[in-house]
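ZP: hey, is the FE2/S2 (inorganic) cluster complex queued? I don't see it on the tracker
AM: it wasn't, my bad. submitting now with these inputs:
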Amino acid sequence: MSMNKIKVTVNNKVYEKEVDSRTLLVDFIREKLGLTGTHIGCDTTNCGACTILLDGKPVKSCTVLAVQANGKTITTIEGLSHGKELHPLQKAFLDKNGLQCGYCTAGMIMMAHWLIRKNPEATRDEIREAISGNICRCTGYDSIVDSIQEAARSMIPEEEEEMVTKQRGR
Ligand code: FES
Ligand code: FES
């Protein structure tokens, strides 16, 4: 076993931890940090349940080693809400029936978050393409696309969100 010290910022909090060089990022997030909102569906890069944002870009965290995240910024589903106040994406998934069992939901939402930031006016086709690496066994996808479009309509621009976040002291 080869241990390495890594420093990562996860949901605005800095962690310094020893990790085995073979530890997957998803296992690090779930087991070392206790952030179990990120799910493991396949462990083989197929399902997207483990999607998180690494330096703002979506990655399947079962395909990245924890040591590769050293010095980087990670956002998981736990980083989206403000206390008990749900993020617009979480609210839209609830309101538009974008989830049933919920297993895929964290990964879907992280992918959708990246898409909306990049393209707030994404069409249904563009949304479908963006989530094409995220598998849902329950919903048939229409309600997920509805949820993402609904959230895009209600999300404030990124610069404004950053200002609100600063004001909240996060
Ligand atoms: S658990 Fe990572 S893609 Fe399925
Ligand atoms: S809601 Fe069950 S897998 Fe997507």
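AM: back. The longest strand covers residues 3-10.
ZP: great, adding it to the tracker
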